[in-house]
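pasting input
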Amino acid sequence: MQAIEKLADFLRTLGNPTRLMIVKELTAGQKCVGEVENILKISQANASQHLHILKSNDIVDCIRQGTTRCYFLKDPELIQNLLKLIEQKLP
Amino acid sequence: MQAIEKLADFLRTLGNPTRLMIVKELTAGQKCVGEVENILKISQANASQHLHILKSNDIVDCIRQGTTRCYFLKDPELIQNLLKLIEQKLP
DNA sequence: ACATTTTATTCGTATATTATTATATTATGA
DNA sequence: TCATAATATAATAATATACGAATAAAATGT
């Protein structure tokens, strides 16, 4: 795939309020699906769906821990620098 | 509007291949609609529409120059730093 | 093996996004 | 004023996305 497409995919994936909130939560450390569900007050299916999209786009990964699945940022520094950069400017 | 929504809007606006290419072109300097149209080989209407979306989201602005309209990045540094940051990481 | 807990998937529906086509607007020059 | 060039807008159709409801799958403990 073209580099520009990959870049656009990355940005579009983050360009959703729910996914952005998930990612922000994950900057504080890994969370399982149920935690994301409770913190953001979204349905279990929706949490799982968004996490799947984030995983498909290589933004998060997960490990099984017993019956739960812990999701975490694949590149926390990238995400944090990105958010810092934009948040400084936007408001 | 919530900060998170603004942030998501910003990212979603950039998260489209055509708009991303437009923005990349604009990092090299301002361009009028016809130039964008020719460089990216997209229709005039499409170029104008994408530029409108970029303008609505405060990513570009424009000035009239006779019968043409020159579009330019409102914050070139932000865009350049953003692209640099991501492109370094994204393989 | 069964029940429970946690997560994933499927499906339907509503909404959003995108590109195309056609038309309108705006400024300029003859 | 009229014609032209450049850009904007509107309407449409195709596709994508988001969410909820229901169901399935996977692992654990009894």
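fyi The domain at 3-89 of chain A is CATH 1.10.10.10 (Arc Repressor Mutant, subunit A).
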